[in-house]
């Protein structure tokens, strides 16, 4: 085409191709055919020449970047990466889930531990009071210290107290019952 047929502005080309005017200016910098008036510095385009240039360079007016030769390999690599991350996160979730206990089980376990400690500590007064009659304060303190140490030793040796709870399957109460 003759340069004289270039009579459309960047805005005209942008409207015709449904792209932003900045896109047309960027195409000009990349080699899109255009004419610049030396005196007014006005830039003019021919829609036919721009369309031919877009086709010859493999450009598109669609948003986004055009696919490159390595895009299949890149897509495959991205999929492998996403799958590896999914496996990693799933493994982390499984490890965390195995360490977590049901809140109701934890509350029941603490209630059991508290009841065991209370049952061991409550009788201290009744068992030590007769031993304290007529004793001095240092002797009473010694009797109480010995009784508390003995109780704590028995509690620490108690298998019922020190066995940690294990994650359990949901209780039957939590599952719907059939009539």
Describe this structure in words.
With 179 residues, the protein is an all-alpha fold. It has 3 domains: 3-57, Arc Repressor Mutant, subunit A, CATH 1.10.10; 67-100; 103-166, no CATH class. The chain has 8 helices and 2 strands, in the order ααββαααααα. The longest helix is centred in the middle third of the chain and has 29 residues, at 71-99. The model is unreliable at 167-179 (pLDDT under 50).
Tell me the layout of helices and strands.
Layout: H1 10-17, H2 21-29, E1 35-36, E2 43-44, H3 47-57, H4 71-99, H5 103-121, H6 124-132, H7 137-157, H8 159-162
Antiparallel strand pairs: 1-2
Helix pairs in contact: 1-2, 5-7, 6-7
Brief overview, please?
The chain has helices at residues 10-17, 21-29, 47-57, 71-99, 103-121, 124-132, 137-157, 159-162; strands at 35-36, 43-44. With 179 residues, it is mainly alpha-helical.
